[in-house]
Design a protein that fits this description.
This protein is mainly alpha-helical and 242 residues long. 76% of the residues lie in helices and 2% in strands.
Length: 242
Amino acid sequence: MHEELKLLNDRLAQHPLYKNLDSLENLRTFMKHHVFAVWDFMSLLKGLQRRLTCVEVPWIPSPYPHKIVRLINEIVLGEESDVDIKGSPISHFALYLGAMEEVGANVMPVKEFLCTQNPAHIPPDVREFVEFNLDLARNAPTHELCAAFFYGREKLVPQMFEGMVKTLSDHKINCPSLLYYLQRHISVDGEEHGPMALECMRMVCEDNPEKILEAQRAGLRSLQMRQDLWDRVNKKLTQAQD
C-alpha cells in the first residue's frame, strides 16, 4: 500500500494540468473548478476539529491527547485566519476568492453554492470530488478522515502548487494574489501543516495495524479522486486550446 500511495502521489505532483495553466483563459477555467476543492478542504479540516477537540456548548474535554488538540487547532488557525499579502487577517478561502476576482475568474457558482448549499451550482466536473470529501468529513472513521486530510491534502498540495507556480511564472501570468496563495501553501503546508497532519494521523491510528491499513486505503482513495478531478479539468483546458 505504501508504494501505491507514493506512486500516485508522485504522478499527481507531475500532472500535465499544471503546464496547461499557461494563459489567463485556462487559469480562469481552472480556478472556477478548483475553488470548490479550496472550500471542501475547510470542511475536512473542520470535521477533524469537531472530532478531535470540542466545539460544542457546553464544552467538555477532548478524549484525545492534548497534543492532537493543539495540532489541529494550530492548523485551523493558519487556514481560517492567516494574513494576506499586506499582512491583514484573512482565511485562505477568502484569499483564493480575491485571487479569482483579480484575474477575472467566475466566482458566481461558488458564491451561489455557499448561499444555497444547492449542489446544482457545483460544476459537474468537480461535483463528485466535493461530494466524496463532504461524505468523508461527515461519516468517515476518524483515522480515515485524518489519512484523507494528510495524504490527499497536506502532503500533496505543496508538490502540486510548485508545478503551478512554475508555469504561471514561466508564462508571466499576471496573478500576484494567486501566486502569494500558492507560495504560502508551499511554505506553510510543506514545513508546518503537513508534519502536523502526519503526526495527528499516526497518533489517532495508535500503532494499530488494522487502522493503519484502513488509513492508507482512505489516503489512496483520496488521491485517486484528485487524479480523476485533475483529469477532467485538464481535458477542459486542452479542449479549449484546440
